[in-house]
Amino acid sequence: MRFFTRRIVFYAITAWAAITINFFIPRIMPGDPVSALIAKNQGRISPDAAEALRALFGLDENMSLWDQYVAYWKLLLQGDLGTSFTYMAPVADVIQQALPWTIGLVGVATIISFTIGTLVGTGIGWRRGTWMDGLLPLSTFFSAVPYFWLALIAISLFSVTLGWFPASGSYDRSMVPTLSWEFIGSVIYYGFLPAMTIVVSSIAGWMLGMRNMMVTVSSEDYVTVAQAKGLKERTVMMGYAARNAILPQVSSFALSLGFIVGGTLVMEIVFSYQGIGYYLFSAVNAKDYPLMQGCFLVITFAVLLANMAADVAYGVLDPRTRQEG
Asked: Which is higher by pLDDT, 175 or 53?
């Protein structure tokens, strides 16, 4: 119980620090978002409205930085993330619109790469010296290729040359988003190339990690005893070796789930995919403080929750982590 209490206190302090940094970093960046907004909408927004816009977006120059910080916490506790400069809409609505696309694409791709990589890594680590070892250099090569370069190659080959898949977008814009098989098929069709890019780039890490752990646990006494009992090879591999080798993988998988919310920023930009990473990029370019803060906050809390889940899962699966030194 003390183990979990300490972890909760640690994450509470971390969340406070993350929120505080999230508030101050955009405000120490050079530039004035209101001036940028007026310049961008020249002719539609009068320069005389600058003071009113600063008050609307919580940038009132008459308020000290501390007062702005306190006001930010009050709004945050009410679930109000502010109003986006760029989209002139509540930040919560913008993020709510972007999150399902990022979670759906990056989440499914991460689960697929984890499952395939772990299973293949288990086989390679258990049957060392076979033809399967040749998969490691190939997969490692693709994992070393930058996301954006691999994405550009996929677009050039499958979209431009072969014309099999669209080069950008998240669904056919002529369709109205509904829970119909036609729309779901369009989403899968448009998301195939981005998902393939993520899977190909990340699968090697799961394979290599599981392979190395399988090599380590294969020489443990409990595996030798299981083999001496005459148990089936598959039973020993999955029930004894893989069951213990997968513990670090579970922890890494939980952390990767937290980073799903952040999406793959470059990948979403290359494919013009309307995920949270794409909106974060546009917010940075437009100096949109509220949207930047909202995106950072959601990503930060997703990572913190994933870390908590990893700690709990590891503490349940391996009781040794809960023992006092």
From this structure: 175
The DSSP string of 197-218 is HHHHHHHHHHHHHHHHHHHHHT
Contacts 24+ apart (CB under 8 A), 252-256: 252/209, 253/110, 253/114, 254/306, 254/307, 254/309, 254/310, 254/313, 255/303, 255/306, 255/307, 255/310, 256/110, 256/114, 256/306
Those residues whose C-beta lies under 8 Å from the C-beta of residue 114, and which sit 6 or more positions away, are 206, 249, 253, 256
Residue ranges and CATH numbers for the domains of the chain are 91-322 (1.10.3720.10)
State the DSSP H helix or E strand holding residue 123, giving kind and residue range, or none if neither. Answer: helix 108-126
Prediction pTM value: 0.70
Summarize pLDDT for 76-95 with one digit per residue, the tens: 888 777 777 777 788 888 88
Strand partners, 42: 45
pLDDT cut 90: percent of the chain above it: 0
153 phi and psi angles, rounded to 5 deg: -65, -45
More confident residue, 321 or 132: 132
